[in-house]
Design goal:
The chain is an alpha/beta fold. The chain has one domain (29-291): Rossmann fold (3-Layer(aba) Sandwich). 40% of the residues lie in helices and 17% in strands. The protein contains twelve helices and nine strands. The protein has helices at 6-11, 16-28, 69-74, 99-112, 126-136, 157-168, 176-187, 189-200, 204-209, 228-237, 253-256, 258-273, and strands spanning 31-36, 39-46, 51-55, 78-82, 118-123, 141-147, 215-220, 241-246, 301-303. The chain has a nine-stranded mixed β-sheet with strand order 8-7-6-5-3-4-2-1-9, with helices on both faces. Strand 7 (215-220), helix 10 and strand 8 form a beta-alpha-beta unit. Helix 4 crosses helix 5. The longest helix has 16 residues, at 258-273. It is globular, with a radius of gyration of 18 Å.
Length: 305
């Protein structure tokens, strides 16, 4: 029996919520590929229900959602997370993509997967991608979640953000380092830097003013990259937005405080979409029988039918 299949088999002997979480973890452990917009996009998928698309931050990949994908799926959503072109194990231009181009990549992924209207969740730089998508293609979007959103266009913003990244390192769990290092090495310095600089040329506040759907802005209490004050400014610009601060979280709030993050996302989407979702064991982001929280990124890829 393969490592990816084992959790599903073990799940049969587990009670309710734990069995559902194990089954979603088994699904999330497998990567898939789909052709979209000329890109052979790698992605992960788990669960059934209203669609939620996770868009990773600068230089990262679908592997970055290791503490979120299965739990959000177990709560009652169909969760998908693609690699953006040029990141993770998806090929893309060495020069990187602008925010508009990244939004296009997410759009063609949704089209290729025939997702229909869905909720979109971005982290860090990809919050701008989600804003751009919701602004330019509102028919695709039912709700948005912006986790540690970037978009500061003040003078010396690059310096402030770079210093913030350095200050953030000791605030993050040591287990995050291998994930980030592997992703950044795959991306390369040129692509990472050009994508970062392209983000600074995008007007996040202009896009935010055009948003018509419910929005949740999540900020880490200890985030030195995106201060709570800036997250509040973004939230105040969106018509139907609320701000929630995750206690003790740094910039990688999706990873260093996953229980609080996952619960906030599920609570918000359940409310605005009028859903009854699973609670309890599924939202406890802990190691289960030696493995769900420690789920290793899958090395095997299968192609979508």
């Amino acid at each position: 029996m393969t490592g990816a299949a084992r959790p599903a088999a073990e799940a049969e002997a587990m009670p309710g919520g734990t069995r559902r979480l194990a089954a979603c973890a088994a699904q999330w452990a497998v990567t898939h590929r789909v052709m979209a917009g000329g890109w052979n996009l790698r992605y992960r998928e788990a669960g059934a229900g209203p669609v939620l698309v996770l868009v990773h931050g600068l230089g990262c990949s679908t592997d970055y959602w290791v503490r979120n994908g299965a739990w959000l799926a177990a709560a009652g959503f169909r969760v998908l997370a693609p690699d953006l072109p040029g990141f993770g194990r998806t090929e893309g231009p060495r020069t990187g993509l602008s925010i508009v181009q990244q939004a296009y990549a997410v759009s063609v992924f949704a089209e290729a997967m025939r997702l229909g209207p869905a909720a979109y969740l971005g982290h860090s730089l990809s919050c701008q991608t989600v804003l751009e998508l919701a602004c330019t293609e509102p028919e695709r979007v039912t709700a948005i979640v912006l986790a540690a959103p970037t978009g500061d266009r003040r003078k010396k913003r690059l310096l402030h953000e770079a210093v913030g990244f350095l200050r953030d390192i000791p605030r993050e769990p040591p287990s995050l380092v291998p994930l980030v290092v592997d992703a950044y090495l795959r991306a390369g310095v040129v692509r990472w830097t050009r994508t970062w600089l392209a983000g600074k040329r995008h007007d996040a506040f202009h896009a935010a003013r055009e948003i018509q759907v419910p929005a949740l802005v999540l900020a880490g209490e200890r985030d030195p990259v995106v201060p709570v004050k800036f997250a509040r400014a973004i939230a105040n610009t969106i018509r139907s937005a609320r701000l929630q601060v995750i206690p003790q979280a740094a910039h990688a709030l999706i990873y260093d405080q996953p229980a609080g993050f996952n619960a906030a996302v599920v609570g918000f989407l359940s409310e605005v979409l009028g859903l009854e979702t699973a609670t309890g064991a599924e939202m406890e982001t802990e190691t289960m029988d030696g493995g769900v929280d420690g789920l290793e990124p899958a090395r095997r890829s299968v192609r979508s039918e």
